[in-house]
Amino acid sequence: MVDTAKPRTPLWLRLTLLGSLALNLLVIGAVAGAFVFGGPEHRALRDRGDPVPVFIRALDPTDRRALRQDLLENLRDRARDRGGMIEDFRTSLAALRATPFDAEGFAALLGDQSARRAQRDAIGRAALAERIAAMSDAERAAYAARIEDNLDTLADRARR
To answer: Is the CB of residue 18 less than 8 Å from the CB of residue 28?
Structure first.
């Protein structure tokens, strides 16, 4: 009698094919994400309402890390603030569910949340300004050149 059982594919080959499939899916996902969201070079266009990200991205990696550390040190009480933020959202939910809806009260809640955000933003702007003030003239000139290069690139892409 003839043995008609199929030979089994070796484990190493199955693992290689699985790894290849995973890598292909990763590449396809990255390409699709760049196509849909415009890629990292378009991030500044998405952030156009806030100029600060343009300035932060132009920092060299060492300065970005130092700025992050400065912010963490200045925002140690953020855990407490986060609790307040969550409570603000819970209050907002209660206001949304209230009958009748109090539009003025809800607008005041949104204003309070915006004020809290503005305080955090002010801390970030001050830390960025301090980081830039600590640069030498040559470092600041190189930083300005990086910002200008980024803006030129964005302007070129916006024209297309």
So the answer is: no
pLDDT (tens digit per residue) in 56-67? 888 888 888 888
Residue 127, burial from CB neighbour count under 10 angstroms (0-12, 13-18, 19+): buried
**Mean pLDDT value across the chain:** 80
Instruction: Confirm if 88 and 109 have CB atoms less than 8 A apart.
Output: yes
Nearest CA-CA partner of 58 in 142, 146, 159? 146
Instruction: Spell out the residues 6+ positions from residue 120 whose beta carbon is closer than 8 angstroms to its own.
Output: 75, 78, 81
Report the candidate in 40, 66, 38 with the shortest Cα–Cα distance to residue 53.
Answer: 40
DSSP state for residue 42 in the 8-state scheme: G
pLDDT of residue 96: 92
Residue type, 95: A
Fold category of 47-159 in CATH: Four Helix Bundle (Hemerythrin (Met), subunit A) (1.20.120)
Helix (H, G, I), strand (E, B) or coil at 75: coil
Ramachandran bin of 39, using left for φ above 0, alpha for ψ from -120 to 50, beta for the remaining angles: left
- The phi, psi pair for 18, rounded to 5°, reads -65, -45
